[in-house]
Amino acid sequence: MTDAQTSAPLQPIGILRRLACIIYESMLLLAVLMLTALGATLLTGINEEHPLFPLFTLFTLCVAFLYFGWFWTRGGVSLAMQTWRIQLVGRRGQAVTWMHAMRRFLVALLQWVVILVGLQAWRTGLWPVALGVLVVVAAGLVWTWRHPQKLMLHDLLSDTRLVRLPDHKKTGV
Fold it and tell me: How do the domains of the chain map onto residue ranges?
């Protein structure tokens, strides 16, 4: 963190800013994963029928982790986070370690898997499962909204939190 960031108190970010950042981050990650898939396909000819396709899936998850881990452990700010003035820090404001990053990534990944299961259940008419997932997700969002530091499950379990970066001071030329 810079001196300016450490002198001001760390302010938590709201759910809407977090969700906007997730949308932008998803577009950036999609581009990275598309390039990864293109490279792997051109080099190995791998496709869904290939016996090693599950390893390719694991490889893409590792690429996604490295994408986030790289930014999170080097200042706590990815391009999307920089745009939305968000920084990832440890619970007490310290720098994020690779262990923090791994726990955060794995818990967030598990949360997305639950959401995808809920969407698949809704799509296939398994209404009780879809409704259960919806209730759990809604409860998590309400809990985050009410939490004083706006922490989500992956924040709590990874001992990290998202804070708002101070706005840039505009200077004349």
Answer: 3-164
